[in-house]
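Any chance you could type out a protein's amino acid sequence plus the matching backbone structure tokens because I've never seen that pairing?

——
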Amino acid sequence: MTLSQDGQIAETTGPRGEEAPMDMQALYEESFKNLKEGGIVEGTVIAVRQDGVVVDIGYKSEGMIPIGEFNSAEVAALKVGERIQVYLEEREDSEGNLILSKEKAAKMKVWEVLEKSFEKGEVIDGRMISKVKGGMMVDIGVKAFLPGSQIDLHPVRDLDSLIGKTFPMKIIKMNHRRGNIVVSRRILLEDSRDKKRRAAMATLEDGQLIEGMVKNITEYGAFIDLGGIDGLLHITDMSWGRVNHPSEIVSVGDRVGVIILKYDKETGRVSLGLKQKTPDPWTQVEQKYPVGTRIKGRIVSITDYGAFVELEPGVEGLVHISEMSWSHEVRHPSKLVSVGDHVDVVVLTVDRGNRKISLGMKQVMPNPWTAAEGKYPIGSRVTGKIKGLTDFGAFVGLEEGIDGLIHISDMSWTKRLTHPSELFKKGQPVEAVVLKVDKEKERLSLGFKQLQTDPWETGITEKYRVGDVAKCKIVKVTDFGIFVELEDGVEGLIHVSETGIEPSSRIGDAMQINDVIRAQIIKMDLTERKIALSIRAYKNEQERAQKKDK
């Protein structure tokens, strides 16, 4: 191409070998035929005005960049003739001016850099801008979305605390046309964790002492972060002593030294121990606590059957409820002791193999049964209160730790009692005679009837003979007969066959308790202490006497 004399451009290679004229408009169009809207071009600053910056990109008309796209420092630094990159919005507006943008050119450059980073899988920095639904907005040069699940390895409860902070991230999804970018921080954290895990796994071995941080606490133990791999410190391996909850020993965030008890390389499971750092106190219990030793301990637990006493950290013994007091009245250990109490105890037995120590509290005090024989000689009279009634007798409290039993057979010489409640009530004061003392078995037998002379050995045989008629009171009615009480309290039985009542009739319909009747003694057994009477024989005798009088 060459310029003609009139200033027009001539085509030097015309179809006929002649110069072909071309106007300036055609020249501009030819120069910009490859320039497209939405592209970045380089231009020269030709003027800086209050409303914008005028840039020449070599087109027939200049372009204007709004002054608002520059900050004050940038405006002050701009110089005429400076080359800058701009984004071409349109070729020209309605007035023939080009519409340019510095901001969009910068963003286009950022997108180009981000796309390359995405393709290469490179790490970028992202600053947390704000919390949005489902995650957070992040500034990586342009705004990007960080899903909540990609923020950390574990759910983050307080997202507001992250605003303003910068973290390394990776782009996991981007769409330039829609302007969407999704980033992840978790990918980098997982990668770092896996590297640490592999490095840690390569060095772990059973018996190794290692330091870690308490990561989480559960009811059954604590999880310790060993640097990329977690190990379980079970509650039973925290202390040789009693641990009710792992939080009594460790807290989240604590750094603790632990011993690897077992490392399974196939599953990656690590079992840890804390108590194993110190010797097992049970190895020396037989030497430290021989049988008979008196020692002070602390109540750490109470059950229905006794109380556990801590002798030292890791060593506990059981005081059975039967070893708490010489008295037999202890219904529950809580009546005597409470958790936290310090008590004196005596070692009764030691079983190191089963980690058991039996203790006694009552052994600290003198055994009242040791002096029982001298204090309660046989035949002596004692007083006490009825403490309890059973089918077979009544227990009498004589002093702390010593109770005596009045057996039902030792309650009356003459009455046949079916239950002690017919004669005694709980809490009733009573006097009795000592019949027997067995200090080894801790038993003391008492008698109530022995307070009086046995009527069977004194006046019964002299007062009553077979054939005598006795006035008596009905005290009990049964199907097989009625029991009666003679005038001196002696009981006798009138068999149903001797009542004179027809077999088809009920005894209870004809005879009532407390009725006073007369009957004839028909049999006396001194060995069995029984008297048999008969109403029928008495009536027959009466009839014979009446006939004789006539």
In short: Residues 1-22 have pLDDT under 50 and may be disordered. Residues 204-277 form a domain with the OB fold (Dihydrolipoamide Acetyltransferase, E2P) fold (CATH 2.40.50.140). Residues 102-120 form the longest helix (19 residues).
